[in-house]
Amino acid sequence: MEFPTELIEKLKSAKSVLFFTGAGISAESGIDTFRGKGGLWNKMKPQELASFDGFMSNPNLVWEWYQYRRKILKGTGPNPGHLSIAEFEKYIDTVTVVTQNVDNLHFRAGSSHILELHGNIERNYCIDCKTYYGMDDFLDVDEAPKCSKCGGMIRPDVVWFGENLPQNIFAEAEEIAKQSDICFVVGTSAVVYPAAYIPKSAKEGGSYVVEINIEPTEITNSVDCSLTGKSGEILPKLLELFLR
Ligand code: BJW
Ligand code: ZN
Q: Does residue 215 contact residue 228 with C-beta atoms inside 8 Å?
């Protein structure tokens, strides 16, 4: 694959680089995406599994689905895409990861400045007293557990449809996007809002926006550079060219 010279030059002089990531970056770690070929939402109903009403109607089903995904995550790890992003930190003043993913794989890859817009599957909290629990507190617990302090229901610390994103984290992400020199939009269909405002904010702020995806998306026509292929292959090549 050919990388535009303009991209490599911009990357070499960049002071602030943002990686805005979605489910596609974890696909090569064996984690299903939500949409597109093989996507979770082709076979599961988002209103049943990823909404508060769905959780209240069938907490055990939702809990079981998250426990299943946690087990898959325990058996895998970051791929060369996550690892390359972490590696860029060694050479660029400011590297920020703004992720829609809840899988914790950027952290496990070694990235140090990560803004999680949709929470983290490794945490849970009580819906009544807001006590937080880790995922290891409930290993092999198949039914939705109750809070040991107040008896309230415990849910995964993720953002479901119709729920607000953590406002301070989203505001910081928007600010960083506006101030970035380059914004890589990696493995996201860019259809879920307000997260999908991030590449738009980057563009408005004058950032050079680069999309990395295996297929065209909502934003392909509005980015400055579109790289078609797997992020686990493109990002390591980009790092190599940057270091050459
Ligand atoms: C590769 C690759 C490889 C593959 N290399 N690339 C109209 C109706 C109803 C609601 C709305 C509406 N308009 C807007 C809304 C609001 C709604 C929304 O945006 N809905 C749209 C979908 C229509 N948004 C919300 O509800 C948000 N909250 C909100 O708006 O609050 C205000 C409010 C309050 C009260 C009432 C109403 C509003 C919250 C959104 C929460 C999203 N939650 C989820 C689940 C998180 C927990 C969990 O994981 O279980 O977040 S849904 C799911 O989508 C997940 C993801 O983070 C998110 C984004 O998906 P992503 O990452 O883009 O993945 P995919 O699968 O879509 O794309 C993968 C891409 O990778 C593809 O392009 C592939 O080609 C590519 N790919 N392999 C590179 N190897
Ligand atoms: Zn409680």
A: yes
Query: Sorting pLDDT into bands at 50, 70 and 90, what band is 1?
Result: confident
Catalytic (active site) residue 82 = no
Indicate if the pLDDT at residue 37 is higher than 90.
no
What single DSSP character describes residue 237? H
- Alpha carbons 66 and 138: distance in angstroms, whole number: 11
Edge-to-edge strands, sheet with 154-158: 132-134, 119-126, 154-158
Q: How far is CA 72 from CA 56, 113, 121, 138, 228, in A?
A: 25, 25, 12, 15, 27
Per residue in 65-84, pLDDT (tens digit) is 999 999 999 999 999 999 99
> Which among 164, 219, 154 has a CA at the least distance from the CA of 20?
219
Q: Is 82 in the pocket of ligand 1 (CB under 6 A)?
A: no
β-bridge mates for residue 156, sequence order: 124
Report how far ligand 2's centroid is from the alpha carbon of 144 (Å): 13
Domains of the chain with bracketed CATH:
1-31+78-118+165-244 (3.40.50.1220), 33-75+123-158 (3.30.1600.10)
Distance CA 170, CA 174 (A): 6
28 pocket-lining for ligand 1 (C-beta < 6 Å): yes
Whether 106 is in the pocket of ligand 1, judged by its Cβ within 6 Å, is no
Strand ranges inside the chain, DSSP E: 16-21, 94-99, 114-116, 119-126, 132-134, 154-158, 182-186, 208-213, 225-228
How far lies 1's CA from each of 124, 228, 233, in Å? 42, 9, 10
Over residues 37-52, the mean pLDDT reads 94
